[in-house]
Design brief:
- This protein has a 15-stranded antiparallel β-sheet with strand order 1-2-3-4-5-6-7-8-9-10-11-12-13-14-15.
- Helix content is about 5%, strand content about 50%.
- The protein has 2 helices and 15 strands.
């Protein structure tokens, strides 16, 4: 990890593994300590340049290759209202992909809708307490939530699949049981894994 003089996270170095080469994630912040962007840079192997010669830290950083960049745009209150994701060709540096997301906030700063570009739009319907009551996609309800007086989730219905999840809480406010029901689920009696997906019981110690 690298930190700035102001104590902000400046970079994270990810070592190479069997699935990816070493790369570094660098962060940019505003004067108000708000995250503005994050970029992934492909690192040089062992700090060497293209000819295999060793380079110092500054030169190594300048020879990193940009892989991806995410930028956030905020309103005057610092709330995220847009996000742009870009992917780049590590060899040529040319942009290969871009995806933009924007959010609509109500007067209290709560998210009420998200535009996902070609993926459509998502709507968030809130109850009188400002807690998520249902989730829509292309104005069609996908998930409905049932809550208790404390606004804890008691059940959720996946409307397009006809699948329901029921949650029971104990007197200490902890999950006690969780059960999925619906014809779309695999039959549980003959399959232990399916039974585990359908229902679970949570046991807690006195701590």
């Amino acid at each position: 990890y690298e930190w700035s003089d102001a104590g902000r996270l400046a970079a994270i170095s990810h070592p190479a593994n069997a699935e990816s080469a070493a790369f570094t994630t660098r962060f940019e912040w505003s004067r108000a300590d708000e995250l503005q962007s994050a970029c992934n840079w492909l690192a040089n192997v062992d700090g060497a340049n293209a000819e295999g010669a060793k380079v110092d830290g500054a030169s190594s950083k300048s020879r990193e290759r940009l892989l991806s960049r995410v930028e956030w745009r905020r309103d005057r209150m610092g709330r995220v209202i847009a996000q742009t994701q870009r992917l780049f060709d590590a060899q040529t540096g040319k942009q290969e992909f871009e995806h933009r997301i924007s959010h609509v906030l109500d007067g209290q700063g709560r998210r009420t809708a998200s535009e996902l570009g070609t993926l459509g739009s998502v709507g968030y319907e809130l109850n009188a307490s400002g807690v998520l009551q249902s989730l829509t996609w292309q104005r069609r309800t996908q998930i409905e939530f049932t809550r208790d007086a404390l606004q804890r989730e008691r059940a959720r219905l996946l409307t397009t699949a006809g699948v329901r999840r029921q949650i029971d809480w104990n007197s200490a406010g902890l999950w006690q049981t969780m059960e999925w029901t619906g014809e779309a689920l695999p039959p549980s009696p003959a399959n232990i894994a399916a039974a585990a997906i359908r229902a679970r019981q949570h046991l807690h110690d006195h701590a």
